[in-house]
């Protein structure tokens, strides 16, 4: 086989090895990956714990948001009910949607990735365990604080999409909206951290031999999911930042009377908001594609087509955002493009559905609980998909826009596309982490109640919507013809809730967490690697993967893995470690030394949450203190990473040796920084779009920008920053002791250039003068943020240099600081020129 | 990078075409501009499809890569054509 990295694939034939492994090796693994005790549960970073924490918290938010849904249904059960006051109802429906989308759906699938992926890929853990812990704690603390706003009457009340001008200071003067803007912006940062972890994990931590064509379909789904987060979420982060700035400093991004445009918010929000649906659906579809072959006892039909469908969904879902805006008066040509794309995106989803049906058809399906939930999911999702094609047609969308028809459609899609697969997944994978599986008998009742309840609750909403019942109304008059339909919907909602309640009881009866050992195991007879015997260190040895269902194709693989006859049967360096493999063919490249438990990610998450919360309640001193301490906590956390061990090269099994430290584009750190820069680049690109959009839509408010020729010195300065960052890396590789000087000087030059640029603009335009002014200063603000981060990174690099931690001819810390600084130069250059070129 | 370009090429062309169409509709609506954008995109898809069909299929991985690439460029070709139709049916 042609190699990707020069690795000889014939070496894989040495496995499984024949020799007996000493028992002490396993004891050492257990010692290194030991379970936490007492307070250590707060500092744990192992995916077996963080994944469970994550799942539990996300499910808690599902229950909380579900209760809010029930409250709404009680209020709407009959005309003129007085269960919830109007203002409270507004907060309840806003929080129901927001919590379901931001605090349940995305974190839940991300959590499933954190828990399942290392086992599926046979890695010891994901590449940045401390980042996982930070992402979880930030999400949990931020989410609970956000939800708590409901109990003090300060919950947001502008709908889960927070459209201005309703959410502008003029119409929403309280801090309710700020809770949403700062809370969601913060939680999305946590989601992006998780996405970086998942992308690098899937591409670089697969078991040797697990080439892309042998990757479990769930890993494919999570890869596409995480890439979509990286592309989509920056848009909502920027949108929340801009609206918060507008509210706090009166910069009119979305004020049409001052050269802003409220439609800019809708573009930014829905560029995130519609892909969000597929971001939720794809991992759930990945779960379905794992569960159905096991349930049907047959290989998945059309593996290649499903991979293609997932990737195509990822692409096309970014071409449908404006179908949420058909009623805003889009130009006919624009509406036509988005209508066409909205119809096209149903094709890849259809490919997956047909594949599942075909797998059921060719196999011998068992109608157990995961199977029932999977089949129920197909029925519900297809129903929601069909109404989706209907609303993709502009004239039909105009008729049903903002009616209960849309409420029915979106619940069919999201419950069929995510909630039912999730329940199937819980019944399917709980034996992997629990001493006992959940009850089959109870499971069937739960499925029956949930399936019937879901349809009874949401099917009538199609009719009430077609009869004209608008969304988000807190009551209605009798005699409108909606009474019976709403009563039936409420009964169905309680039936659905009864199913969930039974599930909780079933969990209480049977779920007994066994992260270390003693789990129920492969009760469904699945064929993928997560069903290998595992402990906290994952599998005893990391197998060579030769097919997509290794447990079906090699019945002895479990025994051989357990007896240490594959890769890394022991700890090669006495630390936590895993093998980093190449992205396409999964050839072993180097051994990654993984960080262990730490208090600092937890502290950093608490302080970050404290910073955002303090900003929301306008406690600026507390916010400042939290920010400073948060930065110190992150630096302390980082100071324990990027270390070298005495062993430069180690045997990872069967005499195959790999280095314990690597630098440059092949490393997992380089990949993570590249993804982070893509996130920053997307935020920046969206800000550029905002400026161009306002120029196109509000030309009468445009002020002639400063001359482009006057920006030449600034542009040269930014080019110099890029060159200095590159030169530092080159000099360091050549052994120059003073190599860090150019990049530190570049980081010092960046704020000077920014200061000069701001000075030029202040002579032309104030940030609160017009939409243009606001958008230009938003670009400068974004530049200011990354300039500040680059300065911190330069200080950190200097500190490591003085401590003697940057030695030899290569260093990951130095590489990453250089990459970031170069990006600062490049973004500054583009911002300087673009802001002057638009409308010149 | 080469393998990723092979796997994603067809859909990347679709993305370029779609966002190009959006820019045209938003900033300078014109049927002729949509044609000027669509023709090279269709040509690119066709060339990518021919390239994908000629790829090696001597090993399991290369066979898989080829079939995904052919599917992606085929889908991209149809999707570009589909995406270019609305201007001819709207007012």
Automatic annotation (TrEMBL), chain A:
InterPro entries, A to Z: Cyt_c_oxase-like_su1_dom, Cyt_c_oxase-like_su1_sf, Cyt_C_Oxase_1, Cyt_c_Oxase_su1_BS
Chain segments annotated as transmembrane: 52-72, 92-116, 136-155, 179-203, 215-243, 277-296, 303-323, 335-360, 372-394, 406-430, 442-464, 484-505, 598-615, 621-638, 670-695, 707-728, 735-756, 776-797
Location(s) in or outside the cell: Cell membrane
PROSITE patterns associated with the record: COX1, COX1_CUB
Main location: membrane
Membrane topology reported for the UniProt record: Multi-pass membrane protein
SUPFAM superfamilies: Cytochrome c oxidase subunit I-like
Stretches assigned to the Cytochrome oxidase subunit I profile domain: 27-558
Record keywords: Cell membrane, Copper, Electron transport, Heme, Iron, Membrane, Metal-binding, Respiratory chain, Transmembrane, Transmembrane helix, Transport
Source domain of life: Bacteria
GO cellular component terms, A-Z: plasma membrane
GO molecular function annotation: cytochrome-c oxidase activity; heme binding; metal ion binding
One GO term of the biological process aspect: aerobic respiration
Pfam families in the cross-refs: COX1 (PF00115)
Family: Belongs to the heme-copper respiratory oxidase family.
Protein name: Cytochrome ubiquinol oxidase subunit I
Annotated source species: Novosphingobium silvae
Upper classification of the organism: Bacteria, Pseudomonadati, Pseudomonadota, Alphaproteobacteria, Sphingomonadales
TrEMBL record, chain B:
Origin: domain of life: Bacteria
Transmembrane parts of this sequence: 35-55, 67-85
Keyword terms of this UniProt record: Membrane, Transmembrane, Transmembrane helix
Protein's name in the database: Uncharacterized protein
Organism: Novosphingobium silvae
């Amino acid at each position: 086989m042609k190699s990707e990295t020069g690795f000889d694939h014939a070496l894989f034939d040495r496995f499984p090895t024949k020799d007996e492994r000493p028992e002490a090796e396993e004891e050492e693994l257990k010692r290194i990956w030991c379970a936490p005790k007492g307070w250590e549960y707060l500092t744990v970073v192992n995916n077996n714990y963080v994944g469970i924490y994550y799942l539990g918290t996300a499910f808690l938010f599902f229950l909380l948001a579900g209760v809010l849904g029930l409250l709404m249904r009680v209020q709407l059960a009959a005309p003129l009910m007085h269960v919830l006051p109007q203002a409270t109802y507004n907060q309840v429906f806003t929080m129901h949607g927001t919590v379901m989308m931001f605090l349940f759906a995305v974190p839940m699938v991300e959590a499933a990735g954190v828990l399942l992926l290392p086992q599926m890929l046979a890695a010891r853990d994901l590449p940045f365990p401390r980042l996982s812990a930070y992402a979880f704690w930030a999400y949990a603390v931020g989410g609970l604080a956000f939800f708590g706003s409901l109990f003090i009457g300060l919950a947001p009340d502008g709908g889960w999409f927070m459209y201005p001008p309703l959410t502008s200071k003029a119409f929403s003067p309280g801090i309710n909206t700020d809770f949403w803007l700062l809370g969601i912006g913060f939680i999305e940062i946590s989601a992006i951290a998780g996405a970086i972890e998942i992308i690098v994990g899937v591409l670089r931590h697969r078991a040797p031999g697990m080439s892309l064509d042998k990757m479990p379909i769930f890993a494919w789904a999570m890869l596409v999911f995480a890439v979509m987060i990286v592309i989509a979420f920056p848009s909502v982060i920027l949108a929340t930042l801009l609206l918060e700035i507008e509210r706090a400093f009166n910069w009119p991004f979305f004020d049409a009377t001052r050269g802003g445009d409220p439609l800019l918010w809708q573009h930014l929000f829905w560029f995130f908001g519609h892909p969000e649906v597929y971001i939720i659906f794809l991992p759930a579809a990945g779960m379905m594609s794992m569960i159905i072959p096991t349930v049907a006892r047959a290989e998945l039909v059309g593996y290649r087509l499903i991979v293609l469908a997932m990737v195509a969904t990822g692409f096309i879902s970014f071409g449908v955002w404006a179908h949420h805006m058909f009623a805003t008066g889009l130009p006919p040509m624009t509406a036509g493009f988005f209508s066409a794309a909205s119809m096209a995106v149903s094709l890849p989803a259809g490919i997956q559905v047909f594949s599942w049906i075909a797998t059921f058809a060719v196999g011998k399906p068992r109608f157990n609980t995961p199977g029932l939930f999977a089949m129920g999911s197909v029925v519900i999702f297809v129903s929601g998909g069909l109404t989706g094609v209907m609303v993709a047609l502009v004239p039909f969308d105009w008729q049903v826009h903002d009616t209960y028809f849309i409420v029915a459609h979106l619940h069919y899609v999201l419950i069929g596309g995510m909630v039912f697969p999730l329940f199937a997944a819980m019944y399917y994978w709980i034996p992997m982490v629990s001493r006992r599986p959940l009850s089959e008998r109870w499971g069937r009742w739960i499925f029956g109640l949930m399936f019937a309840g879901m349809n009874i609750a949401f099917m009538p909403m199609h009719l009430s919507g077609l009869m004209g019942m608008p969304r988000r109304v807190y009551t209605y008059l009798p005699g409108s013809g909606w009474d019976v339909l709403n009563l039936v919907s409420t009964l169905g909602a309680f039936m659905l809730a009864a199913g969930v309640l039974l599930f909780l009881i079933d969990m209480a009866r049977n779920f007994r967490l066994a992260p270390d050992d003693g789990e129920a195991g492969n009760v469904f007879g699945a064929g993928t690697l997560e069903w290998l015997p595992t402990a906290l260190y994952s599998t005893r040895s990391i197998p060579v993967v030769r097919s997509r269902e290794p447990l079906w194709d090699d019945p002895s693989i479990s025994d051989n893995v357990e007896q240490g006859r594959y890769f890394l049967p022991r700890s090669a360096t006495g630390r936590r470690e895993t093998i980093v493999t190449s992205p396409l063919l999964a050839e072993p490249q180097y051994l990654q030394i993984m960080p262990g438990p730490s208090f600092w990610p937890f502290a950093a998450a608490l302080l970050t949450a404290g910073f955002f919360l303090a900003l929301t309640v306008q406690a600026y001193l507390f916010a400042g203190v939290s920010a400073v301490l948060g930065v110190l906590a992150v630096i302390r956390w980082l100071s324990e990473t990027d270390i070298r061990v005495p062993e430069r090269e180690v045997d990872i099994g069967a005499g195959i040796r790999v280095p314990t430290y690597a630098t440059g584009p092949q490393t997992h750190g380089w990949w993570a920084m590249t993804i982070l820069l893509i996130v920053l680049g997307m935020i920046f690109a969206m800000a550029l779009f905002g400026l161009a959009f306002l120029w196109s839509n509000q030309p009468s408010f445009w002020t002639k920008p400063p001359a482009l020729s006057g920006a030449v010195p600034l542009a040269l300065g930014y080019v110099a920053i890029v060159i200095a960052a590159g030169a530092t890396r080159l000099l360091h590789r050549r052994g120059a002791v003073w190599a860090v000087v150019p990049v530190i000087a570049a980081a010092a030059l960046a704020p000077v250039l920014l200061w000069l640029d701001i000075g030029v603009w202040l002579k032309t335009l104030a940030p609160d003068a017009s939409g243009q002014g606001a958008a230009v200063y938003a670009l400068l603000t974004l530049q200011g943020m990354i300039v500040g981060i680059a300065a911190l990174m330069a200080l950190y690099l200097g500190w490591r240099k003085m401590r003697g931690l940057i030695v030899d001819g290569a260093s990951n810390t130095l590489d990453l600081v250089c990459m970031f600084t170069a990006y600062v130069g490049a973004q500054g250059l583009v911002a300087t020129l673009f802001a002057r070129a638009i409308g010149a | 990078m080469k393998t990723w370009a092979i796997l994603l090429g067809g859909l990347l062309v679709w993305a370029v075409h779609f966002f190009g169409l959006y820019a045209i509709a938003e900033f300078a609506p014109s049927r002729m501009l949509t044609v000027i954008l669509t023709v090279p995109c269709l040509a690119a898809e066709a060339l990518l499809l021919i390239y994908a069909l000629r790829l090696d299929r001597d090993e399991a991985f290369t066979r898989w890569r080829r079939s995904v690439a052919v599917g992606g460029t085929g889908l991209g070709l149809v999707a570009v054509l589909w995406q270019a139709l609305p201007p001819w049916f709207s007012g």
